[in-house]
Protein 1
Amino acid sequence: MGHGRLMRRAALFVLLAALWGCSDPEPPAAARTGDMAVQETKVRKWVEYRGGRMLWEFRGETVRYYEDPERVEADGVIVDFYDDEENYSSTLVADFGKIDRKTSNMEASGSVVMTNVDGTRIETETIFYEDEGERIYTDDFVTIYRGNEKLCGYGLETDTGLNETRIRRNVVAETVGDDRG
């Protein structure tokens, strides 16, 4: 082994030893608060039923289960919503999502896109789902594409099928190109 190679290995060892012994790295926020996941899985599905009817299906690339408060958190979230006859009505896609396991309310954040069967698309950064009223809402800036219309504004209330949609304030509407070719 050459002298230069030996010196590089010794320098690397000293550097690693110094880094190892200087201080313990700060644990993640969850560990500092004692809020550690009790289970973590890859590509997991969570389905919500009410009165025998499927309401939604939540999937995540990495899913974590917590006990206090009882919740599920996931990265790479896809949620499919179903109507009263259990027909598919819309899909929500986001970078991150969580479900309150007691109420079945959900929150999704990070590049949120929600699309229904008619092609209506909503884009925002954070969106909430209230399970009891099957209502979608946010206070964030939203953009809605419906046919050749584009609506922008702040705050949104809608149903899971995106049929009765309302932007709360600062609404701007414009006509966009016909994407039917």
Note: The longest helix spans residues 3-22.
Protein 2
Amino acid sequence: MTISLYAASIPVFKQMLNALSDVLNKAEAHALAKNIDPSVFVQARLAPDMFPLNRQVQIAVDFAKGVSSRLAEIEVPSYPDTETTFAELQALISKVLAHLDSITPAQIDGKEGIEIVTRPGTPKEKRFSGQAYLLTYGLPQFFFHVTTAYAILRHNGVEIGKRDYMGAF
């Protein structure tokens, strides 16, 4: 039995982005309940040399929309990454979920062999087949940033667990 490229991408991105949205809701509620300025969480980091929560969310959604769009061979939507509040991060996730909803299985399935080039024309240029791009680059990058966002909030006392991270499946 085989799995389609669509099934390995869009539903996975949607599940995890919805879970991330729920985790952000819990973090905002936690901040309000504990009388903590929500921006403390939005700017929190796991380590000084790591991106803060808002950037982790921005990069996660960038991978979800970018990988999906490249596999569907459509233009990648561009957003300015200026989010500094929970509400703005939620709006960003909503935009990306709507974009993912616009992509059909017919646009992605069968694209395992297309060539996808990252950072073209630079010393960091890398070429992938569609399948390798999703499985060895896109999904690992996406999960890294979703996991890091979760870990930042958990580290800062937000009461979330594995079920929150996984979301509905």
Note: The longest strand covers residues 115-118.
Protein 3
Amino acid sequence: MPTPPGQPVLDLTIELREVEPRVWRRLLVPGSVRLDKLHRMFQAAMGWEDCHLHSFEIGEDRYGSQFDDYPDDELQEKDFTVVSAVGTSERFTYEYDFGDSWEHEITVHRVGRMAKGLKFAVCLDGANACPPEDVGGSWGYEHLLAVLADPSHEEYEHLSRWVGRPVDPHEFDLALVNAHLQAVR
């Protein structure tokens, strides 16, 4: 059967594991982008700052930037497009910041085709804000939220200064996420 014209596009959801409230984004992603760019798209969509290492686990394969002491079986993410790496997988994982170990579950709802090329990823929907960088993983984030909810807590002043901004775990701005996605190069 001939392939329909147009560009492959993935309709997927990225969800941060082990965090309450649930943090997720529904994205349309051009299938022709390489995994290193998908990483930058995930960073923009989730609100991360791209300060740490990351990897993808897709099927039996691990993809990453092959920086420092990368595992022997890690594939260079710059060598694979999203469509070629994902193949027929319906789920895969993305880990960001190996110290805090932010694991994200990616669900591929469908791979379709668009007659017009999709230049940027597009966020269709989502909920809640990502934790601040370097907060100490899901346990550290839970602790931060508890402290910031109690101005009388002994760590309140310290953690308020450390985070440097108000933290609203329920904040989600679809237009802002899409503006960040359009800036991904």
Note: The first helix runs from residue 35 to 46.
Protein 4
Amino acid sequence: MTISLYDASIPVFTQMLTALSDVLKKAEAHASAKNIDPNALLQARLFPDMFPLVRQVQIAVDFAKGVSSRLAEIEVPKYEDTETTFAELQALLTKVLGYIGEIKPEQINGQEGIEIVTRPGTPKEKRFTGQAYLLTYGLPQFFFHVTTAYALLRHNGVEVGKRDYMGAF
């Protein structure tokens, strides 16, 4: 049995971004119920040299839309990453879920061998096949930032568990 490039990407991004949206809703409710300034959660970091929650969500979204677009060989939409509130993060997640939801299997399937170049023309330039880009770069990066967002909230007392992290599957 084989798995398609589409099945390994779009449904995974959709599941995890939907779960992240639900976790953020719980975080906002937690802040409200406990009289916590929402910015205490939105700007939370696990260590001073790490990005805060807001940036973790933005980067996860960037990977979902970027990987999906590159595999489909369509232009990656540019977003400003200016979100500062839970509502703005929810709007961003909704926008990206809508965007990747429009990408069809036939746009991605069969793209395993295309060349994808990251950071072209820089010392950090990397070249991947479509399959290697998804499996060894895109998905690990995406999961790192989704997991870090979850960990930030759990560390700060938001009552979430593995089922929240995983979402519906």
Note: Residues 61 and 95 are 10 Å apart (CA to CA).
